[in-house]
Each structure stands twice: as C-alpha cells, then as structure tokens.
Amino acid sequence: MTTAPTRLAFAAVAAVAAIGLAGCSTPGDASAESAGAYPLTIDNCGTELTIESEPETILTIGTSAVSLLDAAGASDRIIARSGEFGAELPDGLENPPTDAEIVDPSDPTTEKIVGAGADIVVGYGLFNSTDDDLAAAGITNIVIDGECSHDAALSDPTDFDAIFADVERLATVFGTTDAADARLTELRAELTELESSVPADAERETAAVVYYFSSSSTLSARGGQGIANDILDRAGFDNVYGDEPSVYLEANIETLLAADPDTIVIAYGLYGETFDEAKAHFLSEPGAAELSAVVNDRVVGVLGGDLSPDPDAVRGFRAVLEATGRISE
C-alpha cells in the first residue's frame, strides 16, 4: 500500500512542517524551566526551534491547531485561519476564533501567510511555503506533534499522552500553562471515565477507519501511527491497517475486502459532507456490499475532526464507543 499525500483538516484533523523529517521528540520538551521565559527553545518535529519572544498573534493551518491552541489557552490570539478545507470549527471550543479571517481554505502560500500579519504559524505543516521563506519574513512555524511526518512513519505513534503533551508544549510557548493545566485535568478525567466504561469482558474485534478527503478522492484509511489507531485499541478493536507505518494511507476496496473488518468507521465532515453522504460514497465502491460490516449493519460514522491529533480525539473516543455499543451505562 502506498501512502497518500493528503492534507487532513483532521485537520482533523488533523494533521507536518518539516514533512519528511522523521521522528518527533517529546513535544513538551523545552529549554526554559517555566512559561514566559524567552528566548524559548522547543522541539519541533525532531529539530530545535527557538522562539525569541512571546507570540501575540497566530495563523493556524488546519482545525487541529485551533483545538490544541484552545486547550492550551491561546486560541484568543488566532487572527487568521487556513487549511480547513471547508470543515467546521470543532465543537466545544472555549474561545472559538470565529472572527479570524480564513486567508486560504487549503494550503496557504508564503504570500498569504505573510499577508495575514501573524507572528507565528501553528498547524499541520507547509505545502505551499517553506520554513526558510517564513523565517525570512520573521515568522516562526510550529508543527503540531501528531502531524510531524504527515504521510510517513513517526518515531512513535500518536496517542492521547502525546496529544496532551502537545497542549503543554504550546502552553509553554504562549505562557498559558495555568489554563492548559486546568483543561488537561478535565480531559484526562474524561478519558479515564471512558476507558473504565468499556466492559472488561468485551470481545476484541477488528475495525477500520476510512475516509474521503473530497467528493472526488479515492478511499483512504488510518494506519497504525495516528490517534485513530489508539482510539480503536482502547475501544477493544484491532485496526486492520494497524501494521501500516503511517497515519494516513491510500486504501482500496480490495484490501478492505481482504481484511473484512467486523466494523467500519467512516470519518466524515472533512470537506463539509454529512455522514449519510460519506456512507453513500463508500457504499458505491464496487464490492462494498459484500463486506461483513455492511451486511451486518456495522458501518458507523464519526466526525473526522474528532479522530485527529488534538483534544477532540477524546470526543472521538466517546463517539466510537457509543456508535459500536461498547460503552456500559
């Protein structure tokens, strides 16, 4: 199977800068002992990134960046957005940046980024610009940890611990650790509650997470390196694409038929489509009607943004449990 060069508004999600840079160190690592100490050096997809002073304004690329910044207590600094591909802002944001201009619905160019006037970029990475181009304009680019290697293997898979560490990393950058600590306490408590709600005697089954990036795109799936794999595992499922060393990958109906998972999760909403629209697209695939999950009515939908490397993945975990009946009252 080959990996797909898709930009997920998984932002999510989801969710790259140094795309091609292999390996991400612990995202919370920073040279400063506490928030507010500048210059500050953080890990940015395996490279050291020094931030000279506290950033006051942000341009985001992808909705995962918005969710992470909101949890970190810094979403009120977002003045411009991009890379959302028509997806809605995540639900439940403390400070939704609804007034921030969308400078480009897809991958922003250097000109669009510079023109936005932000001090710093936070997002899934650059596809129509480079770090050097932005640095020449005095703009820093931070890549969210779960997108450090967008279509290739990360050194470590993204799980909930990595997402929470990314919130801490961003809070250090923006000097908002108190707000982040409070939000993380809530998120960790919710995650613990959800894990404890899974029946201990639940039989492990197989599942796949599939999606379409646009109405004309081919079928894609979630591999073993992303948060969707961690969600399936915690819910008691083995990801049939879990051995694939990537977050996002090209799939096809043939590989899905060969694996024949018990449950199929369709990640929808990536370009504004409803679950019914995404499911109809999937069922139009030749041979889809032969899948056990289709025959047994085990095709469920979860918002793509809730299966991204950001705090909304906790909501995605709940959605998977509820949709598959794997949550005890």
What descriptive keywords fit this protein?
2 domains; Rossmann fold; 10 helices; 329 residues; five-stranded parallel β-sheet; globular; disordered N terminus; six-stranded mixed β-sheet; alpha/beta; single chain
What is the total number of structural domains?
Answer: 2
Reading the helices and strands in chain order gives EEEHEEHEHEHHEEHEEHEHHEH
Low-confidence blocks of residues: 1-28, 31-35
Query: Strand share of the residues?
Result: 15-25%
State Rg.
Answer: 19 Å
* DSSP, total strands: 13
Q: What is the CATH H-level superfamily of the largest domain?
A: Nitrogenase molybdenum iron protein domain
**What structural class do you assign from the helix and strand content?**
alpha/beta
Helix percent reads: 25-40%
Q: Which architecture of the largest domain per CATH?
A: 3-Layer(aba) Sandwich
Main sheet summary: 6 strands, mixed
CATH topology name of the largest domain, in short, is: Rossmann fold
Mean pLDDT: 88
Tally of separate helices:
10
CATH class of the largest domain: Alpha Beta
In angstroms, what separates the terminal alpha carbons?
Answer: 40 Å
What overall form do the CA principal axes indicate? globular
